[in-house]
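Posting for a labmate who doesn't have an account.
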Amino acid sequence: MKFKLSSNVIAAAFPMLLSLTFVVLAAALPECAFAASTDQDFQSLYDMLKNWSQGTLGRSIALMFLLVGLGVGVVRGSIMGAVGCLAAAMALFIGPQIIDNIFTALI
């Protein structure tokens, strides 16, 4: 007699196994939870890239995104090109703040 699991059983058990894996890893490696606040090796690089993206360089690139999106929208006759480029410009400017908030959030 062979034991055969259907794909539905495996698909149903996968999220539970993945959650269990994360719980075990979090219990075994608690020092990894503080990784965002203890590492200073690349802090100068991070500060430089953050200042670039939120300074005049980031604003210039965001404006270029918008202008290119508007140009594509005019050529195609659709506003969707401008929407995508506007989303990219917002991600460039707001992204570093979101990343800071994710990695330094208090539980």
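Reply:
Got it, the structure tokens are right above this. The chain has a mean pLDDT of 77.
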